[in-house]
Amino acid sequence: MTQAMATTTEERFAEMASTRPRCFWLDAGPGDGTTRRSIMGALRDDDVSLTYDAARREVLRHRDGETSRAGDDIFTVLEDELARTPPDEIWVGYLGYACRPDLPAGVDAGMVPDAIWMRTPRATTVEPSPARTASRARHRPERSGRDTPPAYTRAFDAVQRELRAGNSYEVNLTQRIRVRDEIDPALAYLRLRDLNPAPYAGFIQHHDVRLLSSSPERYATIDTDRMIETRPIKGTTPRGTTAAEDEALRRDLASNPRFRAENLMIVDLLRNDLAMVCEPGSVTVPSLMAVESYTSVHQLVTTVRGRLRDDVSSIGALRALFPAGSMTGAPKLRTMEIIRSVESTARGVYSGAFGWIAPDGRADLGVVIRSLTTAGDGTWELGTGGGITIHSTAPEEYAEADWKAERLLRVFGTPLPGD
Asked: Which residues does the UniProt record annotate as the domain Chorismate-utilising enzyme C-terminal (predicted)?
């Protein structure tokens, strides 16, 4: 592919983002061992979109400049809309962490809606840009040297008490960081995709609301044969500054008992989740704890797969898995109760899922991590964190959360808060 083609794709995106209030770029990239298509599209005024507010339990339907209440459950409303969607159209959007009201999740009057979905017949396949792989130089994030904040230590200690009491095997403890910057969202996305190429990159715009993603993790795919596949990530380490150091870090990740234990716990959770919606005996683990390497990190990735039962719809399956087990811990229900009690802010979009769903049941969604959100007022939010087990320490876990956030903050040229 030529550089001219890449520039055309980027210019087309920037023009679309500046002129079309509701648009998207699901920006597939290398690194997940599969062939995925990159699609771009925009809605016209008479196209339908949905937004969901978890605090109010309200789904709104938007069309032709008018808004009406569509229900109180985004999964139910989306399934109803899909049943009326022509076969040549798709829905593109995201589900935030609190989208299942039957599960315990913190909610607040967040910056952006807890879910956005847009129906479009005008999604077109676009070529990926070479910029996604042009900057492959290894970069090990600088350690900030910051002391672990007391608030994080208190939350960490509370998690440890729950773990030692046997109430959970692993808890994904996260935090939110907010940044003020007037950067144009389309430019911010182009910077992000250069800084952190990822297989689930993407840009979703619904009027002033934007989600910018550079996520490495698959939430779920569903194909025409009704095979559902999820690829949880548990175990992350930065890339080395030399080839020898990089290889040593890769080997340590592959053999580290802590990371392998974290990954196995989430795999067991996902096998259980899939078993609830799949044909008996069809759930398999074709790849267990493979190391995948990205521009900034090595990650430990497992593939879990099964065939959906005839009585389970695609939306029903996506709901059953939600939210991603890698972003909660195990067991899911009790661990989400612990998360709600120790995290000081609601997760919002972070830890949710985004991508596309077709009326024939096909779907492809990533996990919302390594992502930025904004409501167009110059305030940006990102989430960061990691899995806590009884072997974890607060300084190590906080440092890991720091360097996961570091590459996102480079979009703004901003250091970590307090540096």
From this structure: 151-402
